[in-house]
């Protein structure tokens, strides 16, 4: 039985954990506050889940979902994720992370920055373009007519293939969004980011956290990625 390590127990990490146990996977989930703070979440997830340290999640996971603030990635222990398939959900939010010059001037994408901080990981960008509460609501078994899709990007074809298989098992079709240099197409404010999954595209910003999702098939995601224009990151404030 596969084991998914999850570093970060926030909204996205917890949502992916719920999909994993529903798919029959073991889960080892960690956060920065310690395993003892995850008692309620692990009880909710059931017997397939256990709390641990980041080291436990990295060691025991056949793959690892990294779902921590961008500014926290550089604080991970050196070599923690070496050799591991890592699905990174992070985005750059200047209001939280502070201004990062190489992102503001588009020298690199967020994904390229994180990959440079995790040089030994088999790195894939995934689960960063969908609202956390939509993740369990849109998941469907393979072959379902109303299945939604998620984009992934990576410079490692083998890691990308492994990530695609994992995401399929979790309940989503996958769209290959290219390399990490292409991943701006589904970063914040792009046409491939969050609103793509809304049932009502006109939902006001202040209602996004309670918004209703709508089925978002591969063709819709592919179209959004293809039509995306690169965002001027330096003008973003959230």
UniProtKB/TrEMBL annotation:
<protein>
    <submittedName>
        <fullName>NADPH-dependent F420 reductase</fullName>
    </submittedName>
</protein>
<dbReference type="InterPro" id="IPR028939">
    <property type="entry name" value="P5C_Rdtase_cat_N"/>
</dbReference>
<keyword id="KW-0560">Oxidoreductase</keyword>
<dbReference type="InterPro" id="IPR051267">
    <property type="entry name" value="STEAP_metalloreductase"/>
</dbReference>
<dbReference type="GO" id="GO:0016491">
    <property type="term" value="F:oxidoreductase activity"/>
</dbReference>
<dbReference type="InterPro" id="IPR036291">
    <property type="entry name" value="NAD(P)-bd_dom_sf"/>
</dbReference>
<dbReference type="Pfam" id="PF03807">
    <property type="entry name" value="F420_oxidored"/>
</dbReference>
<feature type="domain" description="Pyrroline-5-carboxylate reductase catalytic N-terminal">
    <location>
        <begin position="4"/>
        <end position="92"/>
    </location>
</feature>
